[in-house]
């Protein structure tokens, strides 16, 4: 990605004072509300500025366009989702497969919650998919899953755990994206998550009982 392209979805500047940070927080909260209430097609910087109670010039000091605002929301969501999933995977009070099941449910719910934002970011998709924030989010998620599998499958060869980690991540990402493209009820999300969890937990359980790793 070129610097010019990256600038289109990056914030113009980072707030250094508390007042500036509060302004950015207000803009982002307003953006969240506009996206939820107006939808992707009617999401504009003008509507965000109006909802935030700030001038369009003040908004542009920090965000050059609507894609930059949405990308910031998406980046924040990535971090929040990663923190949630990491907390689930590291919860030693629960057995490993219970943690994996909880992770699947949390991930699918998150995908459904983010569906409107993905639609709104569609035009900038080629940019944000390759952005440093996107790579960092994927790397953190991959490492968290590898650590979990090392704990869960200590006798499993490293290359098999790597394959399992990639397969789980790819399955979650692809299935979650496809499922969330259609509006879903809470019951549908729960039922789908449970079925997906059954499949992935069954796969990990099969690796745990194998005796021949050749």
UniProtKB/TrEMBL annotation:
<dbReference type="InterPro" id="IPR001647">
    <property type="entry name" value="HTH_TetR"/>
</dbReference>
<dbReference type="Pfam" id="PF17923">
    <property type="entry name" value="TetR_C_18"/>
</dbReference>
<dbReference type="InterPro" id="IPR050109">
    <property type="entry name" value="HTH-type_TetR-like_transc_reg"/>
</dbReference>
<feature type="domain" description="HTH tetR-type">
    <location>
        <begin position="21"/>
        <end position="81"/>
    </location>
</feature>
<dbReference type="GO" id="GO:0003700">
    <property type="term" value="F:DNA-binding transcription factor activity"/>
</dbReference>
<dbReference type="InterPro" id="IPR040804">
    <property type="entry name" value="TetR_C_18"/>
</dbReference>
<dbReference type="Pfam" id="PF00440">
    <property type="entry name" value="TetR_N"/>
</dbReference>
<feature type="DNA-binding region" description="H-T-H motif">
    <location>
        <begin position="44"/>
        <end position="63"/>
    </location>
</feature>
<dbReference type="GO" id="GO:0000976">
    <property type="term" value="F:transcription cis-regulatory region binding"/>
</dbReference>
<protein>
    <submittedName>
        <fullName>TetR family transcriptional regulator</fullName>
    </submittedName>
</protein>
<dbReference type="InterPro" id="IPR009057">
    <property type="entry name" value="Homeodomain-like_sf"/>
</dbReference>
<keyword id="KW-0238">DNA-binding</keyword>
